[in-house]
Design brief:
Blueprint: H1 3-12, H2 25-29, H3 36-54, E1 58-62, H4 66-77, E2 83-87, H5 94-97, H6 99-107, E3 112-114, H7 118-128, H8 137-156, E4 161-164, E5 180-182, E6 188-191, H9 198-208
Helix pairs in contact: 4-9, 7-8
Keywords: Cytoplasm, Iron, Iron-sulfur, Metal-binding, Oxidoreductase
Family: Belongs to the PAPS reductase family. CysH subfamily.
Pathway: Sulfur metabolism; hydrogen sulfide biosynthesis; sulfite from sulfate
């Protein structure tokens, strides 16, 4: 683990016994850092260029996590005609789903919600069990494929580009994530906050009073499905609360497959 990542782990991690346990995520993490305004400006420029280039072919794929709430706020604040969509896996926390009416009220924006195929979920639960994800990595990934990957495919069907909240600081596996890349089918993928720090994200949330998932106040920096997310403790890294029972280092569900970006330089469709 690098010094930067080690420092991040320390700043993110608290146990319930910590003196800071009753503090909000904003009070714990938000702080102004050098270059913040420039990073915001660069993100806005990326979103503007992408909106102009891809038009209705562009969508923000929001996890409803704090990074994605920043992006939604930027889209609304700068009046960019970008659709916002999310996945309702059927196993999300109530606190996550509570953001949908908040977004609609705050931004006058209807979030498009994509859910898994009902029969596929019912059959998986009947055959594998309600909490099969704990039984093996293969079953967990099968659950993710049904509840997340398939509906994501429908979300992105007909789209030429999508926006995510991936950041380099989130994990070792994401340490080199670029601002612009191709996804596994060759669609342009824009990681609008790639260079932002955790402090940047929360400073923006504080500055513009952006709504966020209440679970972030309970030491959950990375929030997924309820059975697969827990609070982190002192010394644990950013994504250790996701699929914590698994031993492999790269804690991913398949939404963000790693792939080569060699062709990006040759793609005239990629935004500047």
């Amino acid at each position: 683990m690098s010094g930067e990542q080690s420092s991040l782990s320390s700043s993110l991690s608290f146990t319930s016994a910590s003196p800071a346990a009753s503090a909000s995520a904003i009070s714990l993490y938000a702080r102004a850092t050098p270059g913040f305004d420039q990073r915001v400006a660069e993100t806005v420029e990326l979103l503007r260029n992408a909106s102009a280039k891809y038009g209705k072919g562009l969508v923000q794929s929001s996890s409803l996590g704090v990074e994605d709430m920043v992006i939604t706020d930027l889209i609304s604040r700068h009046q960019l005609p970008v659709a916002v969509a999310t996945l309702d896996t059927g196993r999300l926390h109530a606190e996550t789903l509570a953001l949908l009416p908040q977004i609609e009220q705050r931004y006058d924006l209807k979030v498009q919600v994509f859910s898994p195929v009902h029969d596929a979920v019912v059959n998986f639960v009947r055959v594998r069990g309600e909490d099969a994800m704990y039984d093996s990595l293969a079953l967990r990934k099968e659950c993710c494929a049904i509840r997340k990957l398939e509906p994501l495919g429908r979300m992105l069907d007909g789209r030429s580009a999508w926006i995510t909240g991936l950041r380099r600081e989130q994990s070792t596996n994401r340490a080199e994530v670029p601002f612009v890349e191709f996804d596994h089918v060759g669609r342009v993928k824009l990681n609008a906050l790639a260079a932002w720090s955790w402090a940047d994200v929360w400073h923006y949330i504080q500055t513009f009073d952006v709504p966020y998932n209440a679970l972030h106040d309970q030491f959950m920096p990375s929030i997924g499905c309820a059975p697969c997310t827990r609070a982190i403790s002192v010394g644990e890294d950013f994504r250790s609360g996701r699929w914590w029972w698994e031993s492999e280092d790269a804690k991913e569900c398949g939404l963000h497959k790693a792939h080569s970006n060699e062709d990006l330089k040759k793609n005239p469709g990629a935004p500047a």
